[in-house]
Amino acid sequence: MLNNIITIAPGLVWNIDQAPHALVSGVTGGGKSRFLLYLLLELYKRGQIRVIDPKRSDLYQVTKRLLPETHVATTPGQVGRLLRETHDELMARYERMDAFGQPGVTYRDLGLQPLTVIFDEYAAYIADIEDDKKLLKEAKKYIRRIILLGRQAGCFIIIAMQKPSAEVLSTDIRDQLSMRAILGQMDSTGYTMVFGSQPGMRYEYRPAGSGYLYVPGQGYSIPQTFDAPWIDDVSTIEELLWKVKQQKNLN
Ligand SMILES: Nc1ncnc2c1ncn2[C@@H]1O[C@H](COP(=O)(O)OP(=O)(O)OP(=O)(O)O)[C@@H](O)[C@H]1O
Ligand SMILES: [Mg+2]
């Protein structure tokens, strides 16, 4: 079985167990969705994925036939349900870990695989449900719980949005997203929102498909420049996903 260390670029890795959850930001056209496609493929090789794509763009297109209907959400109702069901799975995993009766037990000890929710266009979703206070409250509650309790149970979330302002993504949630990436150009307030204040740091212009990345615990203390894996054609990811699925069915 593959371990949970995903290579992002030469010399840059992301261990999802050590640095759970992620935030992917950047201006429109910066390359967020392409980068998410790469992460999606790597996470599908290693476990289960759930996809939220309110704009029905790349993520939705490559997974709509591959995954069960309830694992891909685009409308507010579907998103609410997907988050609730992921939360239920998280709770079920905790019950099994409790029953295991050993302190410090993790999902790995139970032979379970990581389950990752990949949430593109988070801000668009929040704007869509702004007037539905109940749905908004519920969605935020589930996301918060997945983030706070997910590591041990192997339930993770990747949130992508153009600019993670505190009004849209509360800071208590943002702070728990360990891996951070910015794709393409960003202004200085955006860099600070994602990476915190980095005195002396000078961010350079980054074209689409490249940017800055920070993963805690990797021996560097400032965001690193990186080039996202190149994905010229989205359909190549779809083909690779189907191959992984076939392989999974054989096992
Ligand atoms: N890793 C990549 N490999 C190849 N092309 C890329 C990559 N990243 C970005 N591009 C190019 O930039 C375009 C925009 O990328 P992408 O759709 O991922 O941006 P985005 O940040 O999701 O934008 P939006 O906020 O509008 O959804 C792509 O259509 C592609 O042409
Ligand atoms: Mg996009």
Automatic annotation (TrEMBL):
<dbReference type="InterPro" id="IPR050206">
    <property type="entry name" value="FtsK/SpoIIIE/SftA"/>
</dbReference>
<dbReference type="Pfam" id="PF01580">
    <property type="entry name" value="FtsK_SpoIIIE"/>
</dbReference>
<protein>
    <recommendedName>
        <fullName>FtsK domain-containing protein</fullName>
    </recommendedName>
</protein>
<feature type="binding site">
    <location>
        <begin position="26"/>
        <end position="33"/>
    </location>
    <ligand>
        <name>ATP</name>
    </ligand>
</feature>
<dbReference type="InterPro" id="IPR027417">
    <property type="entry name" value="P-loop_NTPase"/>
</dbReference>
<dbReference type="InterPro" id="IPR002543">
    <property type="entry name" value="FtsK_dom"/>
</dbReference>
<feature type="domain" description="FtsK">
    <location>
        <begin position="9"/>
        <end position="192"/>
    </location>
</feature>
<keyword id="KW-0067">ATP-binding</keyword>
<dbReference type="GO" id="GO:0003677">
    <property type="term" value="F:DNA binding"/>
</dbReference>
<dbReference type="GO" id="GO:0005524">
    <property type="term" value="F:ATP binding"/>
</dbReference>
<keyword id="KW-0547">Nucleotide-binding</keyword>
